[in-house]
Write a structure and sequence with these properties.
Structural class: mainly beta
Helix content: under 10%
Mean pLDDT: 86
CATH topology of the largest domain: Jelly Rolls
Strand content: 35-45%
Order of helices and strands: HHEEEEEEEEHEEEEEEEEEEE
Shape: elongated
Organism: Streptomyces populi
Distance between the termini: 59 Å
Keywords: Signal
Largest sheet: 6 strands, mixed
Protein name: Lipoprotein
Amino acid sequence: MRIRATVAAVSGALALSALVAPGAHAAGSDDHRADIAKVREAARAASGKTPFTGSTGSDGEFYELPLNFSNVVVNKGKPIVAGVSNQVTVPVTFEIKYTADVDITADDFFLDVELYRGSYDEPAGTLMGDDFASCTATGTQSAKCKGTIDVYPADELANADATTWKVMGLAMAFNGVDPGDDDADLSKVGYVDQDMFNFTTKLQRYSKLTVNAAPEPVKKGKTVTVTGKLTRANWETHDYRGYTGQSVKLQFRKKGSSTYTTLKTIKSDGSGNLKTTTTATVDGYYRYSFAGTSTTPAVSATGDYVDVR
């Protein structure tokens, strides 16, 4: 299972003594994610809420890496939608600026953008990519970067996670320091942990909607009964449960047309079920359409054709 939880706070020396040489792990591996989590907690524990003591480092603590994140876009600006089991991977793009002494091409330099909800200092949840981000220089001290956010619903989501998530950026430069060396000079290790709460994205529970119109065929002027069900992913029971009390539109599209017209709006019952009636006039397709909420995306059922005779 991939490392997702933040490691408990430890002193800077203890955290780094537990790490192996930075080149020993493939980017994005569980071990390296755990390493970064240890460094983050060690830095915060050593200096309170600030993840470093200053711009140059001192007393064996990390120095503030002169690098700044900006212009973060998660999933091309759209919400992240997850079902109950399948992995969801969405793109993340961002930009960085840094000073001339930061080598973003070094083998022991790592950076990434992660999502969090709740408090920045003690987040209720975090989401990240399986691999660290990669960057392409756009100038001598700037770059555009891209990565991913990888979501594993069955392993790491609860229903409360369907909300707005904020962004944090982190970067670490080992600068040739081997943290497995007892005599490692930790003041040469650069680290920055940046809260970008002004950049946000939504995580939503995947929704499903069904429809069935009967009888088929039906005589003109007779009643058509339209049933269906609105459900959404439940990240705690790992199945789809009825979405209750939601306004759903019954729509009709005449045969030969490409446009649906709303006939009426009803609400899903205590199990997410939908049922209403309408009068048959011409051949066409009936469907239910749900506009979505902040926690659940919009969805429309595939139209069910009724032959009117």
